[in-house]
Design goal:
The complex is a heterodimer of chains A (163) and B (264). Chain A has helices at 36-42, 91-103, 113-126, 132-138, 150-160, and strands at 15-21, 24-30, 61-64, 67-70, 83-85. Chain A is of the alpha+beta class. The longest helix of chain A has 14 residues, at 113-126. Chain B contains eleven helices and twelve strands. In chain B, helix 10 packs antiparallel against helix 11. Chain B is globular. The chains are: A alpha+beta (163), B alpha+beta (264). Chain A binds chain B through residues 3-12, 15, 32-33, 35, 54-56, 58, 61, 64, 67-70, 73-75, 77-78, 80, 119, 122, 137-143, and chain B through 1-10, 14, 18, 28, 30-32, 35-36, 42-44, 46, 48, 71, 92, 95-99, 101-102, 174-175.
Chain lengths: 163, 264
């Protein structure tokens, strides 16, 4: 039941929203206070992981209209009408970044990789001719518990053609 | 935060009416810290449809819409050209790009968060905020209010002038909240000093400002006097990040660093 303000009926029962996920328009049932992370995982986007759940680690990174956001900290209802992209939707580009990561021996547990790749893809679109400083700054919100980030930096610099 | 209803309103009037008719309702900004609250409310009001994400230059002021994200603040060429890029630089230090793409100016300002790295530089500029019904307040007035107006914060207004500002912070790790932050602004007439993340919300160091603003000569001696005064004048507290004693010590350090940069 919707009013002109898209009001949901009370009582904590489900809300239906329109969301584009990886290029596919969907009518999605959510609870009003459900986070985007949980909705995406429910709809099969298992690349999107739960890490700190407080917006600090970046593991849950997805794109909202092309911009990287933290899906653990974004209400699904707020995302209504927007386009969400996960790594499942950019597999060709992600594979290219992934190859650079593998070639630099970066991968250990791999848990942070999908989110890191999503952030790198966003960086490539947003910043033309990034410097090493730009890369470090842009990726500050992506934490890795396994590595010291050196392999990541080498891989990303090679991917972006930074000297 | 648990809630039953999520409403994307079509007008400020609709938002204001819901907020005041339903005492168990709240406006949401980006929702970053809203969600970490353990309360339950009935209705959340989302203003995304009201085109409140803008940064625009008017004749005498810069206006920032309440739904402008911290990332938009950081990237704004307009804001980089004013106040020595103070607001852009302060915003750039906050956690990561992903968070800054969500957190909004309205949420940050209305929240009056102690940890905020945005409120401190805003406080040393000539900043006012505007509510839908209650009109304008200076930021200083708003931060000191016992009870916030139950109203819709629509924009932040900053007077354009010759303010040149510097922001400094100390944090345990690069993407953590500040243990303490400081901003100093200098213009032809005066200096202004604000300290935040005390851990309480930021405030001006007015007695310290008077020392430097009333001094005939600005040299190392007077700066040291200002730093010592700021440490004594302000209140600090303990939390998981730092002790009251450490923050008091840091205050003098950050004020000194700000002055070293703003005077060059």
């Amino acid at each position: 039941m919707w009013s002109t303000g898209k009001k949901v009926f009370s009582g904590g029962v489900e809300l239906k929203i329109e969301l584009k996920i990886n290029g596919v328009d969907r009518d999605i049932d959510i609870s009003p206070d459900e986070m985007l992370l949980d909705v995406l995982r429910r709809y099969g986007c298992l690349s999107v992981k739960r890490g700190c759940d407080t917006g600090s680690c970046g593991i849950c990174t997805v794109h909202l209209d092309g911009k990287p956001i933290l899906s653990c900290s974004y209400y699904a209802a707020k995302a209504e009408g927007h386009e969400i992209t996960t790594i499942e939707g950019v597999q060709k580009e992600a594979e290219e970044v992934g190859t650079y990561l593998v070639n630099e021996g970066t991968e250990q547990c791999g848990y942070c990789s999908p989110s890191l790749i999503m952030t790198v893809l966003a960086l490539k679109k947003e910043i033309e001719n990034p410097t090493e400083e730009d890369i470090n700054h842009y990726l500050k919100g992506n934490l890795c518990r396994c590595s010291g980030y050196e392999g990541h930096l080498r891989a990303i610099k090679k991917y972006l053609g930074v000297n | 935060m648990k809630f039953n209803n999520y409403i994307k309103v079509k007008s400020l009037k609709e938002a204001y009416d819901i907020l005041n008719e339903n005492k168990s309702s709240s406006v949401i900004g980006g929702g970053m810290y809203f969600r970490l609250n353990n309360n339950s409310i009935d209705t959340v009001i989302d203003l995304s449809n009201l085109n409140m994400d803008y940064i625009k230059e008017e004749q005498a002021v810069i206006e920032i819409g309440a739904y402008t994200t911290l990332r938009e603040l950081e990237r704004s060429t307009l804001l980089k050209s004013y106040f020595n890029g103070l607001l852009s630089k302060a915003s750039a230090e906050i956690v990561g790009v992903q968070l800054r793409n969500i957190a909004t100016m309205g949420g940050t300002v209305y929240g009056r968060y102690g940890f905020s790295d945005i409120l401190t530089p805003l406080l040393v500029l000539n900043t006012s905020i505007e509510f839908y019904k209650n009109g304008r307040y200076t930021l200083n007035e708003f931060l000191k209010m016992k009870e916030k107006p139950r109203d819709i914060l629509t924009k932040i207004i900053i007077e354009k002038n010759d303010d040149k500002g510097v922001f400094k912070s100390i944090r345990l790790t690069n993407s953590d909240f500040s243990m303490l932050n400081a901003a100093v602004v200098k213009n032809k007439k005066e200096f202004k000093i604000a300290i935040g993340a005390r851990p309480m919300v930021c405030c001006r160091a007015e007695k310290s400002e008077n020392i430097i603003n009333n001094s005939e000569k600005i040299d190392g001696k007077i700066i040291e006097k200002v730093c010592t005064a700021a440490e004594s004048e302000l209140t600090f507290g303990n939390d998981v990040k730092a002790s009251f004693e450490y923050r008091k010590e840091l205050c003098g350090v950050l004020v000194r660093r700000c002055f070293q940069e703003v005077l060059n």
